[in-house]
Amino acid sequence: MSKYTVNSYLVDDGIQVKTEAGKHTIICDEGLSDGGKDSGPDPVEYLAAAVDSCISISVGGNQ
What we know:
Elements: E1 6-11, E2 16-21, E3 24-28, H1 43-59
Antiparallel strand pairs: 1-2, 2-3
């Protein structure tokens, strides 16, 4: 079983989040209309992408 290490840090006045997942860095931000700088997907978009990726990998991708 793999060990997962994920750490998140608030940046940019507490709206933007920098997350380190293993050797990867992910920026999560809110859109301009919600007070963010739109420098990355918002948390719901990341969650939807994670679920979609998991399902796609589990069923064998785009076939």
